Amino acid sequence: MSDYLIQFNNVSKFFGKVIALKDVTMKLKKGEIMCLLGDNGAGKSTLIKTLAGVYKPDEGEIIIEGEKIVFDGPKDALDMGIATVYQDLALVSLMSVTRNFFMGREPLKGLPFFKTFDLEKANKIAAERMGQIGIDVRDPSQAVGTMSGGERQCLAISRAIYFGAKVLVLDEPTSALGVHQASVVLKYIVKAASQGLAVILITHNVHHAYPVGNSFTVLNRGKSLGTYNKKDISREKLLSMMAGGEELDKLEVELKEINRLAN
Amino acid sequence: MSTKSKSIHTKSSFNQDDRLKKVSPLRMLLNRPELGALGGAILVFIFFGVVAGDTGMFSAFGMLNFFDVSANLGIIAIAAALLMIGGEFDLSIGSMIGFAGICIAIPAIYWGWPLWMSIIFAFSMAVIVGYLNGLLVVKTGLPSFIVTLAMLFILRGATLAITRLITGRTQVPGLRVLIENDPIAWLFATDTFKWFFVWLGSMNLIDLRTDGTPLATGIPPSVVWFIFLAILSTWVLTKTRYGNWIFASGGDKNGATNVGVPVGRVKIGLFITTAVASTIFATIQVLDAGSADTMRGSLKELEAIAAAVVGGCLLTGGYGSAIGAAFGAIIFGTVSMGIFYTDVDTDWFKVFLGAMMLIAVIFNNYIRKKVTESK
C-alpha cells in the first residue's frame, strides 16, 4: 500500500494536434491540500475532467491507493471516492436544501414498488450536516436560491463528503465569492482535510491558495512547472510562475515606457 | 466521520439572524406554486356564483358538466405540467389525441378487432410516439418545442391521411355499440356513483327527467381519471425519488447529470406520460361520442400548457405542481362552461384564457424571483 492516496504519473492528454496536458505528475496524501494553480488556458479544466473520469489520459497513469486505475466514465471516479465539485456546483436553486443534498441519491423507505423519498430522514441529515459546518438551516425545505454563494459552495462540498469522498476536487471554489465568504469556504476546506480527505484545490487565486495549501502545482500551457511544498516557495514566486514570470517582467518594462512617454 | 469534536467555529459568520426577516405563514404559502391557481379557481367560483347562481350552472347537472370539461383538460394539463417541470414541452398532445382516437376506431370498426384490443393498441402507439419524442429531444439536444412541433404536424397529417385512405372519410362512427360487455372500455366510459345520484333524485334533491331518472346520471369517467391522476402525480412529484429527479432534470440538466440523475431516462418517461395522458383523453372522448374524428384535440396542447402555467409551472422548468395544473384546468373548464350561463358572448372566452395566462406568467415570474432571491 502506497503512502499516497492519489498519484498522477506523466499524464498527458491530446485533442487532435492540441496538447492539452503534457507529462503532469503530482501526488497527494490523506489530509493534504494540494493547490493546482494556473492561468486561463493552462489546462486546469482538462486536468479536472481527467480526475473526474470524463477524459481518459492518452499517456501516463493514474494510481489510486497504490493501484493503477483507468476510469470508465465519471461514475467510476465517483465510486473510487473521487468527488468533483464543479464551479456550477450541481445545485438547483429552485429546489430545497434537502432535495439538493440528496439529488440523485435519495434515501428511500416503504414497500417495494411504493418506495418513497424519506424526506424526514433526509431533512434531518441535511440540517445536521449543514449545522456541522456552522450553517444554520432553519428550514431544510427552503430553496437553495435563498442561500449565499459561500453557503452553496459549502453545501456542495458537504454533500460530496457525506457521500463518501476520499479525494475532493474543487474547481475554483472561491472565485465568485467575496473576501468574507471565501474565507468561510477555505476554513471548511481545511477542516475537511484535517478529517483525512485529500483535497485538490483548483484556483487561479494565489492569495486564497497559499494560506491553505500544503503543496502547490503550477500548470502553464498544459505543462506542470513542478510541485512545491509550502516551505520551499514563496507567494510571490508562485504568482510570478503562474503568470509566466517573463511576461510580467515584459509588461513592467512596457508600462514604464508608457509612463515615460506620457510624462 | 464525526466532525463534532473539532468543529471550527464558523457559526458566527453565517448566523445572520438579525438580518433575516421572520417568514410569516402567509409568505410560506405564497411560495407554493399552486397558490395562484387555487386563488383563481376560488375567484372564478365566486364570480359565477354571483353572476349565474340562479341559472342552473350550480345544479348537479350543471356542475357535472363543467367538471367534465375541466377534468378532460386536466388529464392532459397534469401530464403537461410534469413535463414542464422536467424542463420540456410537448406540442404534439393535441395531435396525439386525434391519432389515438383513430387508433381505436379503425381497428375496431374496419379490422374487426375487439374494442379492448384497439384500446391497448392505441396506448401502445402512445408509448411509441412519446418514446420517439423523448429520444429525439434527448439525443439531438434540440429544443423540445421544435421536435414536438414537427410531431404535431406529422401525427395530425398521418391521422388524416391514414383515416381517409382506409375509410374514405374523416370520421369513424359506430363505436357505441361495442362498449357493452367489453372488458376494458368501462374504464373510460362508465359513470360512477350512479346509485348516489338515483338516491339524490329519489329524495328530490336534484332535477329529474320526465321518466323519473335523474338528469345527472353519475360522476363521468373523466372526473374519476382526473382525480386519480392528480393524486398520483402529486404523490410522485413530492414523495418519490423519481419526483426529485423530475425537478432536478428541469432545474439544471448538467447539475443533475453530474450527481447521477439519469436525466435522459426521466425526460423520455415524461414524454411517454404526456402521450399516454393524451390517449386517456382520446379514449374517454371517443367512447363518449361513439366516434373518432381526425380533427379531435386540435389546439389542446396549448390549452394544456396554459393550464399548467396558470397552475404555477415555470416555462424554464424545475418548478411547478400537478395540483396547480389541476386547478388551472378547473378555472378554464369552469369559465368555458360558465360563460354560457351569463349574458357574456362566448366569443370572449379566448380573451379570458389569454389574459388569465398573461397574469399567471407575470405572477409566476415574480414568485420565482422571490424564491431564488439571495439574502
List the helices and strands and how they pair.
The complex is a heterodimer of chains A (263) and B (375).
Chain A: E1 4-15, E2 18-29, E3 33-38, H1 44-51, E4 59-64, E5 67-69, H2 74-79, E6 82-85, H3 97-101, E7 108-109, E8 116-117, H4 119-133, H5 149-162, E9 167-171, H6 179-194, E10 198-203, H7 206-212, E11 215-220, E12 223-229, H8 235-242, H9 245-262
Parallel strand pairs in A: 3-10, 3-11, 6-9, 9-10
Antiparallel strand pairs in A: 1-2, 1-4, 4-5, 7-8, 11-12
Helix pairs in contact in A: 5-6
Chain B: H1 11-14, H2 25-30, H3 35-52, H4 60-85, H5 93-109, H6 115-140, H7 144-167, E1 171-173, H8 176-179, H9 186-189, H10 194-202, H11 221-239, H12 241-251, H13 253-258, H14 263-289, E2 291-293, H15 300-310, H16 322-338, H17 349-372
Antiparallel strand pairs in B: 1-2
Describe it.
- The complex is a heterodimer of chains A (263) and B (375).
- Chain A is α/β, with parallel strands linked by helices and 263 residues long.
- Chain A has a domain at 4-90 and 165-222: Rossmann fold (3-Layer(aba) Sandwich), CATH 3.40.50.
- Chain A has helices at 44-51, 74-79, 97-101, 119-133, 149-162, 179-194, 206-212, 235-242, 245-262, and strands at 4-15, 18-29, 33-38, 59-64, 67-69, 82-85, 108-109, 116-117, 167-171, 198-203, 215-220, 223-229.
- In chain A, the strands form 3 sheets. Chain A has a 6-stranded mixed beta sheet with strand order 6-9-10-3-11-12, sandwiched between helices.
- In chain A, β7 (108-109) and β8 form a beta hairpin.
- Chain A is globular and about 75 Å long.
- Chain A starts with a strand and ends with a helix.
- Chain B has 375 residues and is mostly helical.
- Chain B has a domain at 76-298.
- Chain B is built from 17 helices and 2 strands.
- A two-stranded antiparallel ribbon of chain B has the order 1-2.
- Chain B starts with 10 loop residues before the first helix and ends with a helix.
- Classes of the chains: A alpha/beta (263), B mainly alpha (375).
- The interface between A and B is large, with 49 and 42 residues.
